[in-house]
Amino acid sequence: MLNVILETCAGTLTQGLIYAILSYGIFITYKILDFPDLTVDGSFPLGAAVTAVLLTHGVNAWLTLPIALVIGALAGLCTGLIHAPAKVRDLLAGIITMTALYSINLMVMGGAPNVYFPKTETIFTKIGELAGKEYAKLIVLGGLLLIAGVLLVWFFGTQLGLSIRATGDNKDMVS
């Protein structure tokens, strides 16, 4: 009984850490840039789809993370291009990109709604060998969340980061 409770708690914490990483993206766009962007609702699954497909094709699990990050950033760039040059309102630009990414995610996964990779090595399997299978996801996701948080704090303290923060506070600077 105690084992079931611990597994449930670990699963709940794992999902919470995943959503915490997602919340960084929402926080940056909505609170810092004052740009209500819904692209993250499509770009986050896009990164997962790219990672799953790359893993099934034998790409190193740690290499899939930066690739998925770049692909997700390109989705955000699409939102920016729809918003700025095309002069579409910020919220609508995010909705357009998010809706388009639904179809793109399906295309990335070959038209299937999911990708099956039971014996593929992931970032969790190596840590699972060292720390135990049940807690590998918690350790990896907690580490990634900590690294992302430290990098964000550092970045927004740099000159470019301060400029981005000022852009969210000053509408005239944007134009």
What is the strand content? under 5%
- Shape type: globular
Mean pLDDT: 85
Approximate helicity band: over 70%
Could you say which structural class the secondary elements and strand pairing correspond to?
mainly alpha
What's the order of the H and E elements?
HHHHHHHH
Unreliable residue stretches? none
Multimeric status of the protein: single chain
End-to-end separation: 60 Å
Number of DSSP E strands: 0
The biggest beta sheet reads: none
Helices, by number, come to 8
Radius of gyration: 18 Å
How would you describe what is shown here?
- The chain is mainly alpha-helical and 175 residues long.
- The longest helix is centred in the N-terminal third of the chain and has 31 residues, at 2-32.
- The protein contains eight helices and no strands.
- The termini are far apart.
- Helices cover 77% and strands 0% of the residues.
- It is globular and about 55 Å long.
Give a brief description.
It contains 8 helices and no strands. It has 175 residues and is mainly alpha-helical. α3 (61-83) packs antiparallel against α4 (90-108).
Key features?
175 residues, mainly alpha, 77% helix
Outline the secondary-structure elements.
Blueprint (H helix, E strand, L loop, with lengths): L1 H31 L7 H17 L4 H23 L6 H19 L14 H9 L4 H20 L3 H11 L1 H4 L1
